[in-house]
Write a structure and sequence with these properties.
- The chain is mainly α.
- The radius of gyration is 16 Å and the shape is elongated.
- It is 76% helix and 0% strand.
- It has one domain.
Length: 164
């Protein structure tokens, strides 16, 4: 469900916003799923999104970026605690944005920059505004998915959720 939800939501956003629900879905999933299933959520979410918006050479860049994010989250052993989720968010969000910036530089999908160190640095620096927006979006989507999961768990148990 997280895979489908994140892919469908991401398909509605334009690239210029720099927000996507996939990292929030992966962080939520990391609290409850095994690493193999976590890779399915991440990679599946990217594939659903790109099937909705159109496959391109950048699809491979996104898949590599999400693979690196999931590997980092698995290595961190993210659990459903505030500290663990915050650490996962602080580590995974820059990994994803950096991999997208490097992938854009390598493929020339969004901007055509020289294949030099200066071109790579320019790609990374121009991605900073996206990183800022995506970090806020990642935080909000992680909270949204965890809240929805918690509400669903309480509903399944037949108990009302208590306010903290």
């Amino acid at each position: 469900m997280l895979t489908l939800a994140s892919g469908l939501i991401a398909g509605q956003f334009h690239h210029q916003l720099g927000v996507a629900p996939i990292l929030g879905a992966i962080l939520c999933a990391a609290c409850f799923l095994r690493p193999r299933e976590l890779f399915l959520v991440g990679l599946g979410g990217i594939l659903v999104r790109d099937l909705l918006t159109g496959l391109s050479s950048f699809t491979l860049v996104r898949l590599i970026g999400i693979g690196l994010v999931v590997a980092a989250i698995v290595a961190l052993k993210v659990r459903p605690t505030f500290r663990s989720l915050l650490t996962g968010l602080i580590v995974s969000s820059p990994i994803f944005q950096l991999s997208l910036a490097v992938g854009d530089w390598a493929t020339g999908t969004c901007s055509v920059l020289p294949k030099t160190q200066q071109g790579l640095l320019t790609a990374i620096v121009t991605a900073l505004p996206y990183f800022q927006r995506s970090f806020v979006g990642d935080t909000l989507f992680a909270a949204l998915f965890l809240g929805a999961y918690t509400a669903a768990a309480y509903a399944a148990l037949g108990r009302p959720a208590r306010a903290s």
